[in-house]
Every structure is written in C-alpha cells, then in structure tokens.
TrEMBL record:
<dbReference type="InterPro" id="IPR026533">
    <property type="entry name" value="NTPase/PRRC1"/>
</dbReference>
<keyword id="KW-0547">Nucleotide-binding</keyword>
<dbReference type="InterPro" id="IPR029001">
    <property type="entry name" value="ITPase-like_fam"/>
</dbReference>
<keyword id="KW-0546">Nucleotide metabolism</keyword>
<comment type="subunit">
    <text>Homodimer.</text>
</comment>
<keyword id="KW-0378">Hydrolase</keyword>
<comment type="function">
    <text>Phosphatase that hydrolyzes non-canonical purine nucleotides such as XTP and ITP to their respective diphosphate derivatives. Probably excludes non-canonical purines from DNA/RNA precursor pool, thus preventing their incorporation into DNA/RNA and avoiding chromosomal lesions.</text>
</comment>
<keyword id="KW-0464">Manganese</keyword>
<dbReference type="Pfam" id="PF01931">
    <property type="entry name" value="NTPase_I-T"/>
</dbReference>
<feature type="domain" description="Non-canonical purine NTP phosphatase/PRRC1">
    <location>
        <begin position="7"/>
        <end position="156"/>
    </location>
</feature>
<comment type="similarity">
    <text>Belongs to the YjjX NTPase family.</text>
</comment>
<protein>
    <recommendedName>
        <fullName>Probable inosine/xanthosine triphosphatase</fullName>
        <ecNumber>3.6.1.73</ecNumber>
    </recommendedName>
</protein>
<keyword id="KW-0460">Magnesium</keyword>
<dbReference type="InterPro" id="IPR050299">
    <property type="entry name" value="YjjX_NTPase"/>
</dbReference>
<dbReference type="InterPro" id="IPR002786">
    <property type="entry name" value="Non_canon_purine_NTPase"/>
</dbReference>
<keyword id="KW-0479">Metal-binding</keyword>
Length: 173
C-alpha cells in the first residue's frame, strides 16, 4: 500500500488526495508542515513555492512514500484578481512534480477586501455569512454555485500530479 502525506490538515485537501483511491490502494496522512510563504499567497510563483515547500516538508517529517503540497492563492491580471491553486508531489527519490488548476475571477467586492490585506478565507466567510468556507466547498464552490468544489479542484491537480509521476516513471523503465 502506498502512503501519501498531505502537508495540511484542511479537510478539502485531504479529501482530494483520498479520491485517488478510485484508481489504486492508498493511505493518506495529514502532516503538519509550514508552507514557507505568506498565509495569503498573492501570485502564482508564491502559491507554487508554498505547495513545493509543503510537499518537501512532508517527505522530511514523515515516512510517507509521497509528499503532497496543495496551496490556494490569488493572482492578478489587468486589475482582475483570480483564485489560483498549485500542487506539488515529491517522491522519496526527490523528484518534484508540479501542476496548477482552475482560475476564476473574483467579484470586485471580494477583491477589494483582499487588496486591504485580508485573507481570502476571511473575506469569503464574511461575503457568504458562513464559517470555514475554505474547509468545505471553497471560494470556487461559492462562485460556481457548487458545480466545482475546492476538493474537486485539488483532486484535478492530484490527477495531473500523479499522472505526471506515472508517465515519467514508465519512461525511465
């Protein structure tokens, strides 16, 4: 059985990795590791760096076969703020695979809160009058009326990550 360590205790991220069990037998463990970036990553680069650092931290802190880092952030193009998300998969040989997922523009009322320095999780909780949206459907779930949830988004990234791992493993053998 293969063990995936997830560098987070966020239920949406853990569920995304657990969904890989649709394809093969695995166990998932949450590993508390820092991202090494700000609590609210504000660019693709920072968000990706946080995912990679979490995945590497899992390998350093646990006995998992794979370290997984899943990081959500925001980025701006032409004065429009978008949700962005990155994932990283690191194996015991030190191979690092990265992938990014869906982007969706944020309503200006949410972007305004972010520009004042407030984190997206806090802004979306206030916007929806809910608590811990980031641990459930996520901002993407709110803005797509539940058609795509945060777990779905991160699962897509996990498919991209593990698919890359499989491709490169086959091409070496």
């Amino acid at each position: 059985m293969v063990t995936f360590g997830v560098g987070s205790h966020n239920p949406a991220k853990i569920r995304a990795v657990e969904r890989l069990s649709e394809f093969f037998n695995l166990t998932v463990q949450a590993v508390d590791v820092p991202s090494g970036v700000s609590d609210q990553p504000r660019s693709d680069d920072e968000t990706k760096r946080g995912a990679v650092q979490r995945a590497k931290g899992v390998i350093e802190k646990s006995n998992a076969d794979f370290g997984v880092g899943l990081e959500g952030g925001i980025m701006e193009i032409n004065n429009t703020v978008y949700v962005c998300n990155w994932g990283a998969l690191v194996d015991r040989n030190g191979q690092v695979f990265t992938a990014s997922g869906a982007r969706i523009p944020l309503p200006e009322s949410i972007a305004e809160g972010l520009r004042t320095g407030i984190e997206l999780g806090d802004v979306i909780d206030k916007y929806t009058n809910q608590l811990d949206v980031s641990k459930g459907e996520g901002t993407i779930g709110i803005l797509t009326d539940g058609l795509i949830t945060r777990t779905d988004m991160f699962f897509h990234i996990m498919q991209l990550l593990y698919g890359q791992y499989q491709f490169y493993s086959k091409s070496k053998g």
